[in-house]
Amino acid sequence: MNQKIKEVVNTEDTKLSGNKIIELRNNNEQYFIMNGKRKSYHILTYGCQMNEHDSEKIGGMLTSIGYEETDDEKNADLVIFNTCLIRENAELRVFGKLGEVKGLKRNRPDMVVAVCGCMMQKEEIRQKLLKSFSFVDIIFGTNTIQELPGLIYDVEVNSKKSVDIIDNTELIYENMPKIRKFKYKALVNITYGCNNFCTYCVVPYVRGREKSRLPQEIINEVKKLAEDGCKEITLLGQNVNSYGSNLDDKCTFSDLLYELNKVDGIERIRFMTSHPKDLTDDLIKAIKECDKVCNHVHLPVQAGSNEVLKRMNRHYTREHYLNIVEKLKKEVPNIAITTDIIVGFPGETEEDFLETIDMVKEVQYDSAFTFLYSVREGTKAAEMEDQVPDEIKHERFEKLLNVLYPIVLERNRSCIGNTYPVLVESVSKTSENYLTGRTEHFRLVHFKGSEDLIGEIVNVKITSVKTFHMEGKLQQK
After folding, report:
1. Which pLDDT band holds residue 90 (cuts at 50, 70, 90)?
2. Distances in Å between the alpha carbon of 152 and those of 81, 102, 104, 161, 247?
3. H or E, element range at 232
4. DSSP3 helix / strand / coil % (the chain, rounded to 5)
5. Confidence class of residue 14 from pLDDT cuts 50, 70 and 90?
6. What is the DSSP letter of 121?
7. Residues near 464 by Cβ (< 8 Å), separated by ≥ 6?
8. Cα distance between residue 266 and residue 264, in whole Å
9. Residue 168 CB neighbour total at 10 angstroms
10. What does the angle CA 350 – CA 197 – CA 316 come to, to the nearest 5 degrees?
């Protein structure tokens, strides 16, 4: 089975030192001595890979001060909600789950409940939480993860509800312990925040302005991951293509890829998300020349209409986007291109929507995340006139999928008979005799194999395909 990997460092090295933290850690050790078990925590993570990585940091800090992870939220001593604000559905799921935990808290008043993440960066939502879910003990934001141990101390020792929110990404502390979900692959932040202000998106408001990490810090982290047996890294940022823009010493995203490509032990480098307005010829060259960089680019188009793109404040045109795709396919012939598409953006006409359909047909995407436009309070799009009725949104959404899915299926069919290296990730959820992994193009593959192959890169010959996955036969090396 997969084992989560501890990357634990001394709390003194993470600015978590001080009498509060020392006392909390000592209290937890005494609890362990007296009860024969450690206090437990359970994290519920919503949203993107950035949130997943934040949860790894939270788990690392909690382990450092004497907590142990559990899958049993009903009996956990500490339950943490790491929240997302991008889609309304994620927000509603959090509030629904909090309602369930309220009952647990009533029966176990010593349980500590914390809510963090993007939702907590919004003042209105924080106030709603404080008013409607008064049983929540701790609230902290995306930029104050490092303060969690002190917040726990205030609750457990001082019986004080704790709230810690800041907007400034400059104050993010990076050298935190982590509990990585997998040994063989890891998420690595290269930027925090966002400067793009797409009119539908709340990220710049909840995660703050864009900040790039120093290249040597990233390289050192990746080297340490490689030494620990990690084979694949995914570089994270709201816009990885603008990496380095705020650094004193010039280092572009393509420069960073060339340096990381040199790290021994790392076999695959992925990145997301790529903003079309900042995807340069130098980056295309780096994808082509760096043998460890996967031939896969996630390039969100969002819409195929110039008018809609302008209203979204995306800073590129349909023609510019198609030019990038043409260059990518020319320079890297076997590249996979995936995307994000929003249907029903305010003011979207039938003609605008048909331009999106034409874009899908022209690019021939390997896969796409598709969304109905969701009103996010506080964004410019929420204030726009000509909001598209839900009925029309759903009609267009179905039309989009009817065009997209056959293209994705056909792209998968082109793989039948070919053999691909697959990084084995887990036992299949549907059959204990099958394994699941991904090709460098991010295609999901199921095949028969033994559990001891998890974490290895193996050759699999594709024998059949569906829209969302492929099936194959393990090949001997």
Report:
1. confident
2. 14, 19, 19, 9, 35
3. strand 232-236
4. 40, 20, 35
5. very low
6. G
7. 416, 470, 471
8. 6
9. 11
10. 55
Grade residue 189 by pLDDT with cuts at 50, 70 and 90.
very high
Range from 173-177, 182-186, 406-410 carrying the lowest mean pLDDT: 173-177
**Residue 401, SS3?**
helix
CA proximity to 105, closest of 163, 155, 36, 179: 155
> Which residue, chain included where needed, has tokens 């033994």?
450
Per-residue DSSP letters for 274-295?
A: --GGG--HHHHHHHHH-TTB-S
Q: How many helices (H) and strands (E) does the chain have?
A: 13, 21
Quick one: which of 82, 127, 78 has its CA closest to 104? 78
Beta strands in 84-158 (DSSP E): 112-117, 138-140
Condensed to tens digits (0 to 9), the pLDDT of residues 260-317 reads: 999 999 999 999 999 999 999 999 999 999 999 999 999 999 999 999 999 999 999 9
148 φ/ψ angles, rounded to the nearest 5 degrees = -55, -50
Which residues lie across from 426 on neighbouring strands? Answer: 436
Name the DSSP letter for residue 265: T
Tokens representing residue 283 in the block: 């980056």
Count of alpha carbons within 13 angstroms of residue 407, beta-carbon side? 20
Decide if pLDDT at 437 tops 80: yes
Query: Cα separation of 370 and 245, whole Å?
Result: 30
CA torsion 55-57-59-61 (nearest 10°) is: -150
**Cβ count within 10 A of residue 357:** 17
Distance CA 78, CA 97 (A): 15
Asked if residue 378 lies in contact with residue 205, where contact means CB atoms within 8 angstroms, the answer is yes
Mean per-residue pLDDT, 113-127: 91
CA-nearest of 388, 355, 383, 356 to 372 is: 388
Handedness of CA 248, 259, 335, 367 (dihedral sign): negative
Q: Would you say residue 157 has pLDDT above 90?
A: no
Show the tokens assigned to 214. Answer: 């120093």
CA end-to-end span of the chain, whole Å? Answer: 23
Minimal CA–CA distance to 341: which of 323, 355, 327? 355
Q: Is the backbone peptide bond immediately before 273 cis, with ω within 30 degrees of 0? A: yes
**The CA-based dihedral angle spanning residues 284, 288, 294, 295, taken in that order and rounded to the nearest 10 degrees:** 80
Neighbours of 164 (CB within 10 A): 19
pLDDT digits (tens, 9 = 90+) for 210-262: 999 999 999 999 999 999 999 999 999 999 999 999 898 899 999 999 999 99
What sign results for the dihedral spanned by CA atoms 328, 329, 332, 336? Answer: positive
